[in-house]
Amino acid sequence: MVDKVQLELVTPSKLLFEMETDMVVVPGGDGDFGVLPGHAPLLSTLRPGTMAVYEGDKVSERVFVAGGFAEVGDNRCVVLAEEAVPVAEITSEMVTERLKEAQEKVAAAETDKEKEDAEHGLKIAEAMGAGREAGA
After folding, report:
1. Burial 121-134 (b: 16+ CB within 10 A, else e)
2. Domain span at residue 32?
3. Do 11 and 73 sit in the same domain of this protein?
4. What total number of domains does the chain contain?
5. Which end of the chain has less Cβ packing within 10 Å, N or C?
């Protein structure tokens, strides 16, 4: 019996990390889900939120993901994230600046598509702030 999950976190620009872990909790589109060895195959969208990587019963890594997809199967979890930032690297200044830019884009949006994109950016900024606070 396999007792670890092979985790890969990939962004458009790079492979952020590849590791074996005891469990990973992912912010799925329909809610958080945990992946343990032997998990049934699954494909899920991601919502902006914090992914938690466990070694034993302790969180060893927290990573903010802005959205994307997760594929689970064969004792593997592959997370394809639009953007991923280790929570430890998120500063209050980063969150403040991102919120300010997102709010300005929402206010300046003229078309439905611009408004939708701006509101998505605002949700990401708010989730990043919440993830920073939870990981602090």
Report:
1. bbebbebbbebbee
2. 5-87
3. yes
4. 2
5. N
Of 22, 21, 101, nearest to 8 by C-alpha is: 21
Indicate whether 94 and 77 sit together in one domain: no
- 100 lies in the same domain as 81: no
**In one letter, which amino acid is 128?**
M
Identify whether residues 97 and 66 lie together within a single domain. Answer: no
Q: Where are the beta strands (DSSP E) in the chain?
A: 5-10, 15-21, 23-28, 31-35, 42-46, 49-55, 58-65, 68-73, 76-81, 84-86
Q: Which regions in the chain score pLDDT beneath 70?
A: 1-2, 134-136
- How do residues 65-93 score in pLDDT, each as one tens digit? 999 999 999 899 999 999 999 999 999 99
| pLDDT at residue 131, as a whole number | 75
pLDDT for the residue 136: 53
Tokens at residue 33, please? 């889900």
Q: Are residues 68 and 95 in the same domain?
A: no
